[in-house]
Amino acid sequence: MSLGKNNPIVCRCEEIRERDIIRVIKAGARDPDAVKRMLGAGMGLCQGKTCGSLIAKIIARETGRSLSELLPAKVRPPVRPIKIARLKKPN
Ligand code: FES
What we know:
Helices cover 33% and strands 5% of the residues. The chain is mainly alpha-helical.
């Protein structure tokens, strides 16, 4: 599989390109979670729903592993701050 010769963007919301992902794989990332931790790919709006499979395909291609060996990245919903008053018990 080749995503292209033009170094395409893989994670649009974090503007992470294929070449960036290959760089962290060469630095030791072996699964989508490692790529996520090292680059932030998959931490944007889509939370990996769009880019996750592309990232997994790049890892599989670059490491010679099969896609079935690669677990999908863990999903962690975005945390939003709330006011302490909202945590109070209702009367
Ligand atoms: S395209 Fe950025 S998190 Fe998926």
